[in-house]
Each structure stands twice: as C-alpha cells, then as structure tokens.
Amino acid sequence: MKTALVHDSITQLGGAERVLEALHELYPEAPIFTLVYDQKLKEHFEGWTIVSSPLQYLYNIIPRFQWMLPFIPIALKFFDFSKFDLVISSSSVFAKNITVPKGVIHIDYCHSPARFLWSESESYVHDEVPWLLRPIVKVFLTWMRKWDYQKAQQVDFFIANSDNIQKKIKLYYKRESLVIHPCIDAEKFYPSMPKEDYFLIAARLQIHKRIDLAIEAFNQLGIALHVVGTGRDEQRLKNMANEKIVFLGRVEDPILCNEYSAAKGFIFPQDEDFGLTPLEANAAGTAVIAYKKGGALETVIENKTGIFFDKLEVESLKDAVRKFNTINFNSEDLFEQADKFSKDNFKAKFEYFVNEKIK
Question: Where in the chain is the domain with CATH 3.40.50.2000?
C-alpha cells in the first residue's frame, strides 16, 4: 500500500520524534507531511522526504509555531492524500485533523489530545495569553475544541501511546483505541560513564514540565543538578538556580547518553502523557525519581527502577531524593525495564496492528 506519514511539526527532537523515526523505518518510502519543519534539524532528517504546509513560509520568518494556532485548520487542508492508500498520523496536537479521501485508511498514533484544548485549557490561557486577549482566546478555543472533536470522529483507528492517553481519547473524543507504548533507541542509550555526584533532568524548558520545582528542591538540598534542554522558560529557570545547577542546553544523543549514565539519579517532576526519558535513563543504568501521576505510572516500577513522590511540592521531592539515596538499585532491573520499550518491540506491534486492520 502506498503510505504517507503525518506529524504535527518538526521543530524539536523529543519523544514524538523518536516515534516518527521508528515509523519512518517501517515505511521508508513514505513522505512525511508536517505543518512546519525547522531547517536547523535538516541534518538529522537527511534523506527524508518532508512536505510542509504553507505555514512554512511564515515560520521561516518568525519561528514561533505557537503563534500560528489560528491558521492551522486552514493549513491542514493544503495536504493532498489522494495518491495514498494508507495515512498514519503521529499526533500530539492536530496531525490527526487532516482530511483524507474516501477509501483511504487513516490510523492515528495519539501521543495526547491537545493539552491546551482539553486537560490544561485554563492554565494555558492564564500562563500564555495576555489578559486583554483572554476573552477572545477562550471563545476561539471553544470553537477549536468542537473542530478537534469532529475531526477525531473521522479517524479510522486510534492507537494510544499509553493507558493514560487511552482514557483521554475515550473521555474527550468518545473513541476506542489500542495501546502501543512508544519506544526508546537502546542502541543510543547504555552505560557509558562511571557515576558522578549529580542528578539529571532532560526536558523542554516549559512551565508545565515543572523544572522550577526541581531547581528549588535542589537549591535547598545543596545537591548538584544538571539540566538538559532549551525552551521558553529557560531564562526564568536560570534566574532561580544557584551555582550547583548546571544548564547544558540541547545536546546530541552521545552527550545525553553520557549525562544519563553518569547521573546518580534522573528527576521526572512533570505529569507527562507518557515520557520516554525515564526509560532512556534506565537503559543507561540510572534509576528515576518521578511524580506519581500520568505516564510515569506505566514506566517506573517503585523501589525497583525508581521511586515516586506524591505531591508537586518542594518538600515532597526533597523527601524522595533523601529516600532515593538510601536505595541500591539493581542495574539488571533497569535494563530489563528499558528493554520492554525497545524500538523492535514497538515496530513489531505497530506493523501487526496495521496488517490486521487493512486485510
């Protein structure tokens, strides 16, 4: 079958992009349709056929994808799937909202229903929108929720990236789905360095990632913390941090592997839809301290591959760090857990699902 892949945007290298890489390995001839494509990542995706929307012209001038929200419904209409038999979308926001011709099968791998429309609409308006524009934005988001729901009804089959997201697909879209967990690339993450006396966070530096909570906790504990990643919240976080908090920016996978491997523990303080970084840390021989909610409940085995803290409060995280320092984690348990989420497992399950549905 002639296949096309669709991805929200290619502007960063996160968990969704690792899934896209696995899908591209399954369907190497498939072009990737995306709203915008950051040319800074061109080398990483060398040899891929990437088709961007008309929003690309605007993004090349003003690389702020979040400002393009009002134009996304129109931009998606420019994609032409008439020459394909199968379209697979990888969606955290609106990739699933494409229109495919009658007779073309559309499978959506859902990383999450758009958070700013559904689960975090109020906080999005409060944190991201100037107060004068909030009444207008609220009306617009109400319209977008209706549009998002209607487009979700046109998807033929949903795959959820976790039990957590399966429940959200059912809650917000009233649709059934199958869970296929995303994958890590075990060839890129392995024990490569001896342990050092620091903890690690690797994430986009955005408000909802709650890196501020970790920085405040480690400021008070007086323990070293390395922060990998960039984002809109970067300057505020740097202003909070003492001299033991080190910001490394965006790093390539070999350096990230070394950071995972040498870290005493990995901190995962956010309520994530799934979250691959704890598993990457496990693959590199490092246990995890995670907030006890969301996708972490499916990846962290308490007292075996990591521990949880119950409240998004500084004291709760500090107590977890103290407890973590008393536990000796077995490396084999960490490797075994990471191996469950291997790329080969993901590709086999995904290919089996597709073959079953297109018989």
Answer: 199-339
Spatial distance between the Cα atoms of 32 and 13, rounded to a whole number of angstroms: 15
Q: How many residues does the chain have?
A: 359
Rg value, the chain, Cα: 20
Strand 225-228, strand 245-249: pairing: parallel
Query: Between the CA atoms of 313, 314, 317 and 321, what dihedral angle is there, to the nearest 10 degrees?
Result: -170
CA–CA separation, 226 and 285 (whole Å) = 17
How far, rounded to the nearest angstrom, does the alpha carbon of residue 212 sit from its chain's CA centroid? 19
Bridge pairing between strands 225-228 and 306-309: unpaired
For 58-90, the DSSP string reads: HHHHS--GGGGGGGHHHHHTT---TT-SEEEEE
Q: Indicate the SS3 state at residue 186.
A: coil
- What's this model's pTM, rounded to 2 decimal places? 0.87
Distance between CA atoms of residues 176 and 180, nearest Å: 13
Which H/E stretch holds residue 135? helix 134-152
Angle at 78 between CA 72 and CA 79, to 5 degrees: 100
How far apart CA 24 and CA 48 sit, in angstroms, is 9
State how far the Cα of 189 lies from the Cα of 279, in Å rounded to an integer.
Answer: 9
Structure confidence by residue, pLDDT tens digits, 23-34: 999 999 999 999
Q: What is the CATH number of domain 199-339?
A: 3.40.50.2000
DSSP for 198-226, written as a single string: -EEEES---GGG-HHHHHHHHHHHT--EE
- Per residue in 77-114, pLDDT tens? 999 999 999 999 999 999 999 999 999 999 999 999 99
Determine whether domain 3-183+342-357 maps to CATH 3.40.50.
yes
